[in-house]
Amino acid sequence: MKDLNNAWRKTASTLYRKPDDSKILGSVELDITDLQEYISKKRKEGLKITLTHIFTLATGRALREKLPELNTYISRGNVKSFDNINATVSVLLRENEMGSVKVENTDQLSLGEFVPYLQDKIIDARKGSENNTMQLKERFAAIPWPFRGMVYWCLRKIIIDLGLKIGGISANDMGAYIVSNIGSLGLDNGYPALFPAANISFVLIMGGVKKKPLVINDEVKIRTVITLAAALDHQVVDASHAGILFKYYKTILRNPEVLEVPNVD
């Protein structure tokens, strides 16, 4: 029988509790017909980009150009900005086991730089080199219950509430946002949890890609669509910020070529 209490499940049962405060959930359906054609063209040219590459970089640029509020966290009751715009991308490490890789300076990378960068990160993660925060799951799993909860409470107080490092681990290790492509796992859409062991301001979920009829210029056409969903930390942002973010994605969909150029001052 499959072991239901794997390392991540033991850690998750310790980290998450029934909700006692608010977070903002939102979603939007985007027409990516033209974007898919662009991706197909670039792949034929040898650049193996995916939707994950597009939305990870687009989000980084949105934080830089439109939404600095999303590149923030709470420390000792005050809102602070991250020094850089970094992200965490969820990846499938092994069958039925999700992991993550950290991507630094997502606002500056070009698609040509990001593709090999992310591939190397994924290879390292599958060898056991996940970021420091996610590696904690193995250590938590080794602690028997109920002591696991006590240890987590102490760590949260130190790294989240006090903003201190312990054992080389910081609440800022995962960056400001997480991108997860659940469509690649066979799910059409979903609403994420905000990871409570890190200073994450929001999580972006990419759902499944499908075709459906849409009205374009008063004509019904078959188009390719994707549903994006986000959970945002209401401590630092409001629903209006989600609206700005989704509008920015639509801008990128109309002109994805801008992501081919590094965005460095």
Strands, helices and their partners?
Layout lengths: L6 H9 L7 E9 L1 H12 L6 H15 L6 E4 L2 E4 L5 E8 L2 E7 L7 H16 L5 H10 L5 H15 L15 E5 L20 E15 L2 E15 L5 H16 L11
Parallel strand pairs: 4-6, 6-7
Antiparallel strand pairs: 1-8, 2-3, 4-5, 7-8
Describe this protein's structure.
It is a single chain. By secondary structure, this protein is of the alpha/beta class. It has one domain: Chloramphenicol Acetyltransferase. It has 7 helices and 8 strands; from the N terminus they run H-E-H-H-E-E-E-E-H-H-H-E-E-E-H. It has a 6-stranded mixed sheet with strand order 1-8-7-6-4-5, with helices on one face. A hairpin with a 2-residue loop joins strand 4 and strand 5. Helix 1 crosses helix 5 and helix 3 crosses helix 7. The N and C termini lie far apart (55 Å). The mean pLDDT is 87.
Question: CATH top level?
Answer: Alpha Beta
Q: What order do the strands of the largest sheet run in, or round the barrel if closed?
A: 1-8-7-6-4-5
Which ranges are low-confidence, i.e. pLDDT below 50, for 5 or more consecutive residues?
none
The name of the CATH topology is: Chloramphenicol Acetyltransferase
Overall structural domain count = 1
Instruction: Choose one word for the global shape.
Output: globular
Average residue pLDDT: 87
Number of helices: 7
Content-based structural category: alpha/beta
CATH superfamily: Chloramphenicol acetyltransferase-like domain
How many runs of DSSP E, i.e. beta strands? 8
Write the H/E string, N to C. Answer: HEHHEEEEHHHEEEH
CATH architecture: 2-Layer Sandwich
Output the radius of gyration. Answer: 19 Å
Strand content: 25-35%
Distance between the termini: 55 Å
Please estimate the helix content.
Answer: 25-40%
Major β-sheet, in short? 6 strands, mixed
